[in-house]
# Entry
Amino acid sequence: MSTSTVSLGEWESSDIAGVQLSNDDRRLLDQLRSRGNPIAVEEMRTGLRIRSSQYVGVVRFEQVTVHVRPKMIGLEAGLVAMVRYAAGLGALRRLGSSRAIDVDGSDLFDLLAALLTEATEELVRGGLLTDYVEHEELLPVVRGRLLYDRQFIDRFARLDRLWCRHDERDHATPENQLLQAALEACSLAVSHEPTRRHARILDRQLSELCGSLPAAWHPQEIAYHRLNEHYREAHALARAILDGAGPRSLLREGSQRSFAFFIDMNRLFQRFVERYLSELLAPKGVLVEPEEATSTVLHDVAAAKSYGTVRPDFVVRRRDQKVRLAMDAKYKDIAHRGVDPSDLYQAFLYASAWTLAAASPRSLLIFPVDHEGPVRWIEVRNLDRRPLGHLGLLGVSVARVLGVRPSEGAVVDSELLALAAAPGASAA
# Structure
């Protein structure tokens, strides 16, 4: 197991002296590069240089464990609450069991695994969902539909066993299989022994009820209704674990001493902002719509075809108006480090393309902050100082939206409501 632990935040770097990578470690890094390269590791003569990005999580090498912690949103407790909120589950609440979980001191993967095992145990105690599942098997008598073609090919002129297809109530539903796959990942990779033991017990229970997962199994989209709504809590945690840990095949085949789990905070923050805007603006008759990529904005004149696609994260508009306001969510420390010029150029492109000709071009860039304030407007001018458009910078406190600091939100919410009410108005 790892002999030391190093902790750093997003967009930070650290030099670790006296540590060398093993062959298993290098294979793990090759797998991470194919999945977006969430952490940069440079081998030097004296040790390793680690550089984090917008991904948070944990990577366990044979000689060292590196934690990338979500410092902009309140460490691991804030991240778990953010995962649940983005999935439509509200603020973080403690689940069924009375066992304590060390939230702030936990490995992020172990923390999510502990919450998943408690949520799953609660479901098992209440009785797992069953549904009619299609089976194909050899039976002594016809049940359901006789499979003539398969019977002819496999058992020609033999009638002692018949190939039949029939429906039977079973626990092997998509709802249970999603939990089973996540528990399998936890039983292989969790470092906290009590949590790993708990995950293995639950994984065996689900395997006995549902059977083994197919080798090519992958998560399905699940529509929630009154019969399976109580699964939503555990499913949000299970999807976060499976998304961050990678394909099941890598978990089964990899070394247990070398393991990585990362969450893309930029993508999670986008889902968080979408839910926040929808909750705030929908009661006022304002639509928040994830925008489709369009190829009509950039056009290659010489080739007479599209030059590429562009897409803002969201477009806000009133139900009774066509005027729209494009918005982008960026998980960056803009409050302290300023705006990347490329983000400003991108925002101006959205303002120009998504604003109707009769309105003043505007777009909004939303980013996480500790303390909120009013929209800060950047005016784009030509060389004659004539305004061409306005780019708004708005910091949103994740803790405030999740209810940890509810008193801070008056200014931000009121400004967003005003912007949504008149998307094409001139900036103040």
About this structure: The mean pLDDT is 83. The chain has 13 helices and 18 strands. The CA atoms of residues 89 and 233 lie 7 Å apart.
